[in-house]
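FIELD: query
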Amino acid sequence: MLIIGLTGGIGCGKTTVSQLFEEQNVPLVDADEISHAIVQTGQPALAQLSKAFGQQVLLSNGSLNRDYLRELVFNKPKEKEKLESILHPIIYQVMYQQLEEFDSPYGILSIPLLLETMHQDKVDRVLVIDCLEETQKSRVKARDQLSDSIIDSIMDSQCSREFRLSHADDILNNDSTLELLKPYVKELHKFYLKISTGKNNKHPAK
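FIELD: result
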């Protein structure tokens, strides 16, 4: 199976594009959904976090104290690296397992921080959903009701638009309307079907 890594900055339209690919019956696995699922109460990853960061990482009901963990790793590279070393291998393992359940020429892993975490080697092609930074800001402001300063800080924490584009195998511009976006997704779908012919089913990272 050819594996496409779908990524892009906040407000670029990753969810919209993901839904359009799913309408083409393309299997898609979302890293954000998995990252939440693996730290639910009773999951092994939660026990690993508790062992690594202490009981303070758990709430009184045994669930993950997300606020505490977020504050713990904020601007602390070593703590963030420790967190990622625990979660990322599990996330990718689950994503690959879920994709392998499908009989499809290609599949998509939606990974918002694919390039920030330098994991592009775990996919066959990187698809960047792109739009102007002004478009990003206006979409996020309308969707999440965030202030300009918070939006700027989020965008600053992500890799630059130039960096994303320079590491993309494929770029999908999403500055316009949904109706104009749909045919481009269909063209990419046809392209991925074409190049997936003869692709070895084993992922290169395995």
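FIELD: remark
The longest strand covers residues 2-7.
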